[in-house]
Design a protein that fits this description.
By secondary structure, the chain is α+β, with helices and mostly antiparallel strands. 25% of the residues lie in helices and 21% in strands. The strands form nine sheets. Strands 17-16-24-23-22-18-19 form a seven-stranded mixed beta sheet. Strands 2-1-7-4-5 form a five-stranded mixed beta sheet, with helices on one face. A three-stranded antiparallel beta sheet has the order 8-9-12. It binds iron/sulfur cluster (2 copies) and FE2/S2 (inorganic) cluster (FES).
Length: 546
């Protein structure tokens, strides 16, 4: 392996490693605009310059690769490269580059959405001159809407071309271009067509200054008022890693979080803006009992009394008449608790189900390999593993009238009940639906229990490539609701299930790791913030965990 010396620190690196990335990984703050680890090298901003012994002038470190040298060419007999990123010459060059980049930059940091996370702001503070020698009129171009989700403030642009390379290399649709030449260069859409690809929001994320900004986040709040929460997108079965910015218990924005095994640095606009769907439904804030004139709100204590009376007290409990339906929107832990009820009450395996997938067209695969799944449920795979049921609920035994009591988890925002499922609910004597709003299924229920929405809960989910990932609560659920896992636990207790006792979600995760085949080792700590892949092999069309 090549050995380099960077500012007196010896570092062993992979053959072919990029000098700038090595320096950044080692904690050296070399300023850079145009470099992005997932894009090709443009080398146009010149900010990342360093001195490399034996090379003429200054080198842009983003474009320097490190290779092992033959013994006779090693510097000082030991090093494959010796680099200085802090010499006076380097510092001087950086401040001159910065002065050039700032020639036309407006002093609008106070109203710029990027303020607080802007490379230009940070580098000016760390590496720039305290004043500008530019006395001429600044170049002024008006802001412009480039697409539904993206605005450009051209005066802030440093022409790093990240946004252009993103559209070319990641999306595979070169929708952005540099218009005009030299001093008049400006980023614009091609042929006047708006940037409408499903990954467009990422251009604002990777713009190192406040030139491309998100329409959704425009002037919403200052970034330093946000509390960021690491979690996973819930809008399809890919499970992109995301960071949710929250203030005043409201989601203000969702941005992708790097995970090389799932979504790299990206997310789609459906996931990014998906949180607005939750704002459109009227949340349930107390259990509802169906009476002669519709639903009446009741207390949680009353709700569990009603459950006790109807599930076990009326004519004694008959396990074969009782069915449970899990949810691909709920966590592994919530679905696992349903499984525990089945085992504790000896409910026949045929009486446990999962409602059908909500499929939308075909998968969308972009040039880089980033994909959007047609399955809009985030945890179908995990729910199947926990409940040990086939992919979809089939009416089977349930539709012939044998089953009279149903407990169903919803958890999602969309009704995906097909006709036969609605018929099953219609035919049962007593139906309990746990849902966040009065969905079609909830309307058919006798008792509705208010549940928690995605981003209001914690636990784990398993994506469609069998990666177990941790989700974390970002916002506190409305008053009157209870976390879904606690409601299921209380449900279990109210019907006399034995041996189902947990103090918190992590305890359930731990039990899953010791009892569900294939999930060995999936403790909360092991899953961590990046998740872990399960090994599995296909066998006779059934997914078998290895
Ligand atoms: S708009 Fe932003 S990402 Fe695009 S070239 Fe300008 S500074 Fe770079
Ligand atoms: S691809 Fe799926 S998981 Fe990823 S951001 Fe889009 S909707 Fe969310
Ligand atoms: S980051 Fe190296 S030249 Fe721009």
């Amino acid at each position: 392996m090549p050995l380099i010396k960077l500012n007196d620190k010896e570092i062993e690196v992979e053959n072919g490693a990029r000098l700038l990335q090595v320096a950044l990984d080692e904690g050296f703050d070399i300023p850079h605009y145009c470099y992005h680890p997932s894009l090709s090298i443009a080398g146009n901003c010149r900010m990342c310059c360093v001195e490399v012994e034996g090379m003429p002038g200054l080198q842009i470190s983003c474009n320097v690769t490190i290779n092992e040298l033959p013994e006779e060419r090693k510097v000082d007999g030991s090093y494959d490269m010796v680099v200085n990123s802090e010499s006076e010459e380097v510092k001087d060059a950086r401040s001159r580059v910065l002065e050039l980049l700032l020639l036309n930059h407006p002093l609008d940091c106070p109203v710029c959405d990027q303020a607080g996370e802007c490379y230009l702001q940070d580098y000016s503070y760390l590496h720039g001159n305290a004043h500008s020698r530019f006395k001429e009129e600044k170049r002024v171009n008006p802001k412009k809407r480039l697409g539904d989700e993206i605005w450009i403030y051209p005066n802030r642009c440093v022409l790093c071309s990240r946004c252009i390379r993103f559209c070319d290399e990641i999306v595979g649709d070169p929708q952005l271009i540099v218009r005009n030449r030299g001093y008049s260069s400006i980023i614009d859409v091609r042929d006047g067509q708006p940037i409408d690809n499903k990954l467009s929001g990422n251009t604002a994320d990777i713009c190192p200054v406040g030139s491309l900004v998100s329409n959704d986040f425009l002037h919403k709040t200052r970034v330093w008022n946000l509390k960021e929460h690491d979690t996973v997108c819930m809008d399809c079965s890919v499970g992109c890693n995301v960071e949710i910015g929250v203030s005043n218990n409201e989601i203000q924005r969702i941005k992708p979080r790097y995970n090389k095994d799932v979504n790299d640095y990206w997310m789609c606009d459906d996931g990014r803006l998906g949180y607005h769907a939750a704002e459109k439904v009227e949340r349930l804030q107390s259990p509802l009992l169906k009476g002669e004139n519709g639903f009446d709100p009741i207390s949680w204590t009353e709700a569990f009394e009603v459950i006790r009376e109807n599930v076990i007290s009326k004519e004694g409990f008959n396990a074969s008449e009782f069915a449970l339906i899990g949810s691909p929107y709920c966590t592994n832990e919530e679905n696992y608790l349903l499984r525990k009820i089945v085992e504790s009450m000896s409910v026949p395996a045929s009486n446990i189900g999962l409602y059908p997938a909500e499929m939308e067209g075909d998968p969308i695969i972009f040039k880089s390999g980033f994909r959007i799944s047609p399955d809009k449920t985030p945890n179908r795979t995990g729910a199947i593993d926990m409940l040990r049921v086939d992919n979809t609920m089939t009416p089977g035994d349930l539709s012939n009238g044998r089953v009279s009591i149903i407990y169903m988890l919803q958890g999602g925002l969309y009704d995906v009940m097909n006709e036969s499922m609605l018929e099953i609910l219609n035919n049962a004597d007593f139906v309990i639906v746990q849902s966040t709003y009065l969905s079609d299924a909830a309307k058919l229920a006798d008792l509705v229990l208010p549940g928690t929405m995605h981003y209001e809960k914690s636990g784990t989910m398993t994506n469609d490539r069998r990666r177990v990932q941790k989700i974390n609560q970002a916002v506190v659920p409305p008053v009157g609701t209870r976390e879904d896992w606690k409601v299921i636990l209380e449900f279990a207790n109210s019907i006399g299930c034995e041996g189902i006792e947990f103090e918190n979600v992590d305890e359930i995760t731990t039990e899953i790791a010791s009892s569900i085949p294939g999930y060995e080792g999936c403790s909360t700590e092991a899953v961590g913030s990046a998740g872990i892949n399960l090994d599995f092999e296909e066998e006779e069309n059934k997914k078998v965990l290895a």
